[in-house]
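Handout, section 4.2: multi-component inputs.
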Amino acid sequence: MIVLGIDPGIAIVGFGLIQQEGNHLKPIQYGSITTKAGLKTERRLKQIYDGMTQLFNKYKPDAMAIEKLYFNRNVTTAFTVGQARGVMLLAAEEAGVDVAEYTPLQIKQAVVGYGQAEKNQVQEMVKMLLHLKDKPKPDDVADGLAVAICHAHSAGIQQLMTERGFQT
Amino acid sequence: MPLLRKLRRLLRRRKGLLALGMIFMALATLAWTLSVADEADERQSKDEEAVQVMADEPFVLVLETNYLCGTQTEIKQFEDEQTLQAWIDTQDVPWQLVEKKDRTYVMVHEVKDDLAPVCKEEGYFGLSEDGVLTIYQGPPTENQVIQTFFRIDTERLESKLPASEIHTLQEGIRIRDVADYRQVLSMYEEFAIGY
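Output:
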């Protein structure tokens, strides 16, 4: 199974593509979709949409996992990132890819084993789990990979529960 | 009429001003055109750099085996060029390199005495809508073309063969091996237009 993990944003969208083979996780590609601050919002959204479509066409993921948003201060930022999330979900739907959403707490729990883990701990774990030489930079890229790892683990557990007859 | 005359007189007097206005208009149009072109260029370059990847892309080896009927394609990925080359060196099959572009290698191998697995498992001879003898994957009604041959003179076919034979061809003649393939082909070859 190939999972595309997304850390949504309007300036930087971090993404990580990993392949799950049994218990083994292998990084396929990771990086970012960046848009320039001076551009109109609609143009930036179009660039994100095109970038996402490019990823779906090239790597053909089986699932997309995306981080849920929590904002309590800057409402304007929340709206813009919400719009960016919208085009990402649209691109996934057009590509016929299932989408799963996880809270930052769930992601940290799945990657580090502790929901209140710090950013640096998450990055270290991503590096270790995927056998990377360095911590992926910027943070958004590491976060994209973390979301993908979270989904790979959750999907594995879900499959196990289905096989053993538990309802999810 | 007096109004028109007045306007003419005014234009004659203000000839210089009119010329200046026209020059200004032309310059404004030129500036706008250039800014639109710049914006389009800027857009294009910004779109191109939107996706940045960090991991090295794998080396892709596309292996195409061309059979008497059909082609089988296998795609392999290697972490580096040395591993890819080492894999090729271990092969007994005489692969020919036909394309090398960036990190993708395309190699071809011809097998002219066998059918591709797809032809053996699901191959049917049939007639296309425009009368071309064709091999399909599955019955001709599903229209999944594998290979096309020649246009058939259907009038001559109808006059020479019993209706049941033509009906069988239209429904699809199943082939399972090279003998089936050659038999059907030789049977209909004489009805090829220009044969």
